[in-house]
Amino acid sequence: MKALVYHGPGNKSWEDVPDATVQEPTDVVVKVETTTICGTDLHILQGDVAAVTDGRILGHEAVGTVTAVGDAVRGFSVGDRVLVPAITKCGRCEYCQRGMPSHCQTVGGIGWIFGHLIDGTQAEYVRVPYADTSLYAVPSEVTDEQAIFLADSLPTGYEVGVLAGNVRPGHTVAVVGAGAVGLSAVLTTGLWGASKVIAIDSNKFRLEKALEFGATDVVEVGPGTVGDVVALTDGLGVDVAIEAVGYPETLLTAASLVRPGGTIANVGVHGTPVELPMQDMWISNVTLTMGLVDTVSIPTLLKMVASGRIPAEKMGTHRFTFGQIDEAYSVFADAAANLALKVVITP
Amino acid sequence: MKALVYHGPGNKSWEDVPDATVQEPTDVVVKVETTTICGTDLHILQGDVAAVTDGRILGHEAVGTVTAVGDAVRGFSVGDRVLVPAITKCGRCEYCQRGMPSHCQTVGGIGWIFGHLIDGTQAEYVRVPYADTSLYAVPSEVTDEQAIFLADSLPTGYEVGVLAGNVRPGHTVAVVGAGAVGLSAVLTTGLWGASKVIAIDSNKFRLEKALEFGATDVVEVGPGTVGDVVALTDGLGVDVAIEAVGYPETLLTAASLVRPGGTIANVGVHGTPVELPMQDMWISNVTLTMGLVDTVSIPTLLKMVASGRIPAEKMGTHRFTFGQIDEAYSVFADAAANLALKVVITP
Amino acid sequence: MKALVYHGPGNKSWEDVPDATVQEPTDVVVKVETTTICGTDLHILQGDVAAVTDGRILGHEAVGTVTAVGDAVRGFSVGDRVLVPAITKCGRCEYCQRGMPSHCQTVGGIGWIFGHLIDGTQAEYVRVPYADTSLYAVPSEVTDEQAIFLADSLPTGYEVGVLAGNVRPGHTVAVVGAGAVGLSAVLTTGLWGASKVIAIDSNKFRLEKALEFGATDVVEVGPGTVGDVVALTDGLGVDVAIEAVGYPETLLTAASLVRPGGTIANVGVHGTPVELPMQDMWISNVTLTMGLVDTVSIPTLLKMVASGRIPAEKMGTHRFTFGQIDEAYSVFADAAANLALKVVITP
Amino acid sequence: MKALVYHGPGNKSWEDVPDATVQEPTDVVVKVETTTICGTDLHILQGDVAAVTDGRILGHEAVGTVTAVGDAVRGFSVGDRVLVPAITKCGRCEYCQRGMPSHCQTVGGIGWIFGHLIDGTQAEYVRVPYADTSLYAVPSEVTDEQAIFLADSLPTGYEVGVLAGNVRPGHTVAVVGAGAVGLSAVLTTGLWGASKVIAIDSNKFRLEKALEFGATDVVEVGPGTVGDVVALTDGLGVDVAIEAVGYPETLLTAASLVRPGGTIANVGVHGTPVELPMQDMWISNVTLTMGLVDTVSIPTLLKMVASGRIPAEKMGTHRFTFGQIDEAYSVFADAAANLALKVVITP
Q1: Residue B193 zone, left/alpha/beta (φ > 0; ψ -120 to 50; rest)
Q2: Residues of A in contact with C196 (CB under 8 A)
Q3: Are residues B20 and B143 both part of a single domain?
Q4: Are C72 and B26 an interchain contact pair (Cβ–Cβ within 8 Å)?
Q5: Both C129 and C244 in a single domain?
Q6: pLDDT tens digits for chain D (347 residues)?
Q7: Does the pLDDT at position C269 exceed 90?
Q8: Boundary of a domain, candidates B270, B290, B310
Q9: Where does the Alcohol dehydrogenase-like N-terminal domain start and stop, copy by copy (chains A, B, C, D) (predicted)?
Q10: Fewest C-beta in 10 Å: which of A51, A107, B134, C178?
Q11: Residue A261 to residue B98, Cβ atoms within 8 A
């Protein structure tokens, strides 16, 4: 089969590799019919993720069809259309049992293993461990181009942003950064009755998208960002500030936007320390959350996509074939300039 | 009447002042029969709290008897024995209605006003605004020397440490800093079924006290602190790390102790920024909480003291009269060296 | 002034009564500019509510303007436009402090006192006790004809139905009974992301209204009701069944609709016992909730009405003046036949 | 091997049966070293549980050693000491994933299958399906005679009583019925900080045990039961009333004991309908919960037993060998008269 293989910083190639096969009785093999690229894949290519070594097949998001099942698999059969999520879940460790497979102790202390600790989904076929507890059947009302965004970006915005942020009916919510993950948070805040959703970005295209995705207000980044956002509230700031970028400045902006008793939900992947003004914050009764997605919200999100309440397909702005995967990476690597949110890659 | 008056950094005096009187129909006046000193009073005396100006009566904790009531007060009468908590609660603003009077919008955006924005409790009498919603009747089973610690330190350890930290049955809890507030957290973790409570301090006296207060383990601060604590868990760290000191190092220690998915509950008052290693923490699914006490747990704590489950009186290690208040401050200012936790001051 | 006075079962009259005045320092007087009739008013007129005695002014819902304030009132001034909710809240008793003023211990062990234990709102003026903690300012974006439904019916459907029922994103919800309160539940389930809202009634007009109010499906009552509803789910029943009628059969229907682990939220006012099939239900892990509204959700609902997410005005189907109040009662007493939901009564 | 086989109402025998073997790759076989009898076993023997048919091996609680493992089992090995809980959990269905395996859709719509839908644990060996997600390793600090009560009775009292009842620090709790399950609730309320635990029974031995197990007060059943219990509260009743018997009268007693806003947690197994006084209850803002245990609290309970906070061994009052299992049933069938709580049965 063919797959996109990592060969050290800056190097990748779409090349022949051994076929994916069932290795454990709990495995299945999935023929990949739709995949996409995540910001993390770009980090890997820059050499930022030491655990990814030469020879690793990249990618951790897929929709496809089951082509082989291990002896112990009971929930899926050959021919089933499935969503392969970013997180693998053994289902039996303490973390899986409490609904936090992001830290599955069985598969490596971290639930993100595709394209990281094992071969990934940017390939013609992918081996999926712990299939019974990890895979999701895709309802017939949901298209591949909707489902693919439920593998990682939508649950990330929803779980690490909206759920961790504890959005509740009537809340005002600010989303700092309107890229794919920030927009996923915008798209799902409505599930919890937010009264106002304010998207903040420096890119006009993304702010336009934010309004399309359900933001009630947008603020272009500038010297007056904090004041502009607070002016859209009762003067005390927002109930929930979702950080979806991953830089010290954006986290500090989020911290400045939140009212006493509010929540700062950090979704961004950080590369450096952040100096928090604890001398001012300690008295503010705020909560700061952070973390990797668990993807346990996928059943809920599938229902909401199926019922039309979440137009997940809006995330896909550009389409490519496997053969054009290099081009897909190029476009996504400079997403804002290319007016791209997420790319859709099919055979 | 006599009161302890602040006269700028380093200066205070027990002197004659005008009598406390009812000024609003919702006020009462309380004759102070027991008061104490808080770490915040020491900060004020160092000039660290700009809002406290020359002439202000200090103190925000008292137990006493009502001597006068305003026309609109319905819940308290002259002669009632009451607890005056650190936080004043108007009862009608959005923050009071959601149980977060720490940020009461009516009394100043912050609920701590005694000895800060209005005259305080280190005095023979104190005026208490919004008495109906702020005061608590003291049950007959609870002594003054128990009740006084429910004005601030016990609810602080409980609310900002144990409740914000989301301690649940079976959890392992580390408390960084075993001073009065850290020990208050130790004393109240049992209410939520912690399986292991590990107190961490550099002072042997405090560690001994921690064991008396219910800690299951103690760790003396040293180069191996983090490893020693983690070794007392299953190797992943504690579920809840309570920071009760207020320095960058102690907050970073707390952050190092917590397992994936755990909570760092910051109780300490910070004077400087803290550089958080977000490059490591973002993926850990931890939550960091912080804030001022609301004192809304006082009814629960009063019940637990009355039923004997919380031996609050153990917090009081030294006793003074109003006339010895300077000495009380001296002892408390160097509490660890003086083997002191909290001082009890009576007429 | 004039008011609607109860004179024993079946008797009421719009007559001259002494003017409403401030009696306590915490009172205000409100000039009633909009009021309405509640199902409970009909029960009173049938003599079903023993606590209501001859001479009592009826009604517990109003929007109007403050005309006088007691000495201790700080949150409202003469001229303020306010919502008078069904529940009076002292703000200081244990129940008020935990957000459950439906059982305010100060005003009578029950928070519903207007038109019940004290004179009510179907009058030119009404005295409002504990005004600071009970009244709500009406934002300028909200009209009187929207606000009036937030005095009782909308919060009842929302709090006792949607909130008590613990509706969460992705849930399927059945609402048994599509009268004013059932429709209030339909109108507010969206705040919690329900994926499917099934309204059940025997009246076609109400089912049409249910679709207008946000129901995704309707089921006309018949021998196959339970099967029809379950067929709209995955075969196991709904997550939340809201009972909004108040008869044994309707509560048993709700109980039959709910899946294992679901919630039956009883909103209906019952007049007789209900025989629950505990021999079947004990194993089902369901929860049954019930209760009087607290009206503490009014601030949230006001925000959602102001932002356009809840079209509260749709509840008002018929308009009357004070002089036509008898006619208003006649229409409302036979609401279904008159294609009425709620009536709006103005001077 | 030998096992206790059901042969229709009133008939059972300890007889030779085919050996338990691994049938599915996810199975293990456990050598039973300790088992016990549950009230449900008595119901089965009375012919009350139609799903149990002639030839079924009884029992759903065991502690023992793994003797064989299926190919897909990764969490357990031959020789491991394990707890076999009453509930089997596939780990992948919607109910298992939300922590409610009591209604596991895979194993039969109900998670209780041992001694019910498949052969049980009152045998020398037992086949355990879905072993990786169902079994629990027993820590070395926990003895077999402690662990056996964590298979069903302790988690039942804790989950269906204490957790469903939403016990919180400071609460008053009444437990109606001080048999094995009621006492399990008494034993575990302390994990949630109850301030008062009132046990109610007609049997003096059980009331004595209740005091030993942590009850603060006991009330002997009589005409004044409700008044006696309410007098132990502030006059409004208890926060949580746990019903642990299963008769209409006991459920109605529990309902009479609870204060406005409280919870009635039904643990009892009912055989007939119960007429609830909804005409009085609808306004009381109470919650009624019920259900089968999930056994998901076992990890927490194991920690608390290991740390000495839950003296589980106190539940075992009588000891028998497999050969004496008929006698064990006789003693347990008349537990109160025999001063028995739970029996311990070993090879």
Answers
A1: left
A2: 307
A3: yes
A4: yes
A5: no
A6: 999 999 999 999 999 999 999 999 999 999 999 999 999 999 999 998 999 999 999 999 999 999 999 999 999 999 999 999 999 999 999 999 999 999 999 999 999 999 999 999 999 999 999 999 999 999 999 999 999 999 999 999 999 999 999 999 999 999 999 999 999 999 999 889 999 999 999 999 999 999 999 999 999 999 999 999 999 999 999 999 999 999 999 999 999 999 999 999 999 999 999 999 999 999 999 999 999 999 999 999 999 999 999 999 999 999 999 999 999 999 999 998 999 999 999 99
A7: yes
A8: B290
A9: 25-132
A10: A51
A11: yes
What residues of D are in contact with residue C248 (Cβ under 8 Å)?
278
Task: Collect all residues of chain C within an 8 Å Cβ-Cβ radius of residue A301.
Answer: 170
Based on the fold, state whether residues B12 and B137 are members of the same structural domain.
yes
- Same domain as C262, residue C158: yes
CB contact under 8 A, B91 and C94: no
Whether D284 and D179 share a structural domain: yes
Same domain assignment for residues A135 and A34: yes
CB B214 within 8 A of CB B304: no
| Alpha carbon of C213: minimum distance to chain D alpha carbons (Å) | 26
Are B216 and D304 in contact (CB < 8 Å)? no
DSSP string, A197-259: EEEEES-HHHHHHHHHTT-SEEEE-STTHHHHHHHTTTSS-EEEEEE-S-SHHHHHHHHHHEE
Name the residue facing C304 among A169, A191, A299 (closest C-beta). A169
In chain B, residues with a C-beta closer than 8 Å to the C-beta of D154 are: none
Instruction: Name the strand (E) or helix (H) holding C209.
Output: helix C204-212
Between chains, do B70 and C72 touch, taking CB under 8 Å as contact?
yes
Tell me how close the Cα of C287 comes to any Cα of chain D, in angstroms: 4
A25: its two tokens: 């009785």
Residue ending a domain, choose from D270, D290, D310: D290
CATH number of B175's domain: 3.40.50.720
Q: Hey, what are A332's tokens?
A: 């996504």
* pLDDT above 90 (res C144): yes
What span, in angstroms and rounded, lies between the C-alpha atoms of A123 and A21? 13
C273 contacts D278? CB cut-off 8 A: yes
D18: domain CATH number?
Answer: 3.90.180.10
Interface of D with B in 120-179 (CB under 8 A): 169-170
The answer to whether residues B171 and B144 belong to one domain is no
Whether residue D282 is found in the same domain as residue D314: no
Residue D160 forms beta bridges with which residues? none
Which residue of chain B comes nearest to D162, CA vs CA? B169
Instruction: Produce one character per residue of D96-106: b if its CB has 16 or more CB atoms within 10 Å, e if not.
Output: bbeebbbbbbb
Neighbours of C (≥3 Cβ pairs closer than 8 A)?
A, B, D
Going from the C-alpha of A106 to that of each of A94, A102, A112, the distances in angstroms are 10, 11, 12
- Low-confidence stretches of chain A (pLDDT < 70) are none
Which amino acid would we find at residue A275?
A: E
pTM exceeding the 0.80 threshold for the entire prediction = yes
Q: Token digits for D83?
A: 């707890």
State the Cα–Cα distance between residues A208 and A225, nearest whole angstrom: 17
Which 78-107 residues of chain D touch chain A by CB within 8 A? 90-92, 94, 97, 99, 106
Closest approach of chain C CAs to the CA of D329, in angstroms?
24
